[in-house]
Design brief:
Layout (H helix, E strand, L loop, with lengths): L1 E4 L4 E10 L1 H5 L5 E10 L7 E3 L1 H7 L8 E2 H4 L5 H9 L3 E3 L3 H11 L4 H9 L7 H12 L3 H5 L26 H8 L14 H12 L1 E6 L5 E5 L10 E7 L8 E6 L4 E7 L5 H8 L11 E8 H5 L8 H22 L3 E5 L4 H8 L6 E10 L18 H4 L1
Antiparallel strand pairs: 1-5, 1-6, 2-3, 3-4, 7-8, 9-10, 9-12, 10-11, 12-14, 13-14
Helix pairs in contact: 2-4, 10-13
Length: 391
């Protein structure tokens, strides 16, 4: 049996406090400090606790050269090697673990980016419960518990030295649009979103204006947003529940054809609960007419920017550009929109059948018709949306 170390992996020396009754009885505080090694390996789920001996051995194993297990056992403890095999940090030539490790290698991730991405994915997180627990813990004394926040603005010169810039006296169409861009938490379930408006928002945010066949034979997309290398590695997966002419269900958006690709029909009554679960129990988004999951196709970007320190950051920027464009497209039509990074990525992957080693969600958008009444609080300091309610 030939083995080698898995590809991307990082080790974190960690310290935790542990209650020890014997130490308390001996007159101490009862708390002891425990030092441990944690392996973070993107090809497998979760953190992996290692013994010091396993951590040292892992650092001596090659991630590229296949070596006979019995040969390694002559210079390493067989028990340690067996433990690393069981923990899927030492992989054999055949088997699912080796295949997933190879898929990760073939995507050309940079190790710190891969570890950060996979370690930050959630499953079945309920922020509603967490917020309740947090509120009970602090008892309304947020600043007392956390200390004062950072200043609203970092000032690097005295007020007398600031060069004040002229403000435009008359608001342009863009100014009005930006002033009206408010995150929506109140959607009208009683009305269906017109198909034309649904189509317009999708096209303006994600639609391809053209496909450019370059002289190098690399097809590049022209969209209304910038993207690293014009590769546009971000896909749009949709949960549709209140749109004229579109059956409730899961869809994938084809940006070149400007078309929906049906994935699965859904019971309309079950969709709000699904949206709530995927957005980590943020119930105010559950009535959105359309939810757009922005996913990154990692190889599409890393094919060019291989093992690049900026490649993953560029994917995050791509999603930000798409989100703001979707906001503005929806606002122009008088619709509400939202974006959230508080999502259960693993649950989204399972819902849409995505392999996280190839494609994964970074954020969730949504849009639709605003509700006539403000039931959930929204941040609208300019009174651009809810002027009647705040007058």
């Amino acid at each position: 049996m030939r083995v080698r170390r898995c590809g991307p992996v990082m080790l974190e020396p960690r310290e935790r406090l542990e209650f020890n009754l014997s130490a308390l009885a001996a007159g101490g505080s009862g708390l002891s400090r425990v030092l441990e090694w944690i392996a973070l390996a993107p090809h497998r789920e979760g953190e992996v606790e290692l013994t010091p001996e396993e951590a040292i051995a892992l650092g001596t194993l090659s991630p590229s050269a296949w070596v006979e297990f019995d040969e390694l056992a002559q210079t390493h403890s067989r028990a340690v090697l067996d433990a690393l095999l069981e923990k899927k940090l030492l992989v054999t030539e055949a088997g699912e673990t080796a295949q997933r490790d190879q898929k990760l290698r073939d995507t050309h991730w940079r190790t710190p980016s891969a570890v950060m991405h996979y370690a930050s994915r959630w499953a079945e997180v309920d922020t509603e419960g967490l917020q309740k627990d947090f509120a009970e813990m602090i008892g309304g004394r947020l600043i007392d518990r956390l200390g004062p926040p950072a200043p609203v603005v970092r000032e690097r010169a005295p007020a007398t030295q600031r060069l004040r810039l002229p403000r435009k006296s008359d608001a342009s169409t863009l100014d009005v649009l930006l002033d009206s861009r408010v995150t929506c938490r109140n959607f009208d379930r009683s009305r269906k979103l017109p198909l034309e408006q649904f189509s317009a928002v999708l096209y303006r945010a994600y639609g391809a204006r053209s496909v450019d066949e370059t002289t190098l034979g690399i097809p590049l997309l022209k969209k209304g947003v910038p993207a690293a290398g014009a590769l546009h590695a971000t896909e749009a997966y949709l949960i549709v529940q209140h749109v004229e002419g579109v059956e409730p269900g899961l869809y994938h958006y084809h940006p070149v054809e400007h078309a929906l690709e049906p994935m699965r029909k859904l019971d309309p009554d079950a969709i709000p609960a699904l949206i709530k679960s995927l957005t980590a129990a943020q119930e105010y988004f559950a009535d959105a007419h359309v939810v757009v999951i922005a996913t990154s196709r990692f190889f599409r970007n890393f094919w060019k920017y291989r093992n690049h320190s900026k490649a993953y950051r560029a994917l995050i920027l791509d999603v930000g550009h798409l989100s703001q464009t979707l906001y503005l497209a929806a606002t122009e039509l008088g619709l509400g929109a939202f974006v959230t990074a508080v999502i259960n990525e693993i649950d989204i992957e399972r819902t849409f059948g995505l392999d996280p080693l190839e494609e994964g969600p970074l954020a969730v958008n949504g849009f639709g018709i605003r509700a006539p009444e403000l039931n959930e609080a929204e941040f609208d300091p300019l009174n651009a949306v809810w002027a009647a309610q705040t007058a």
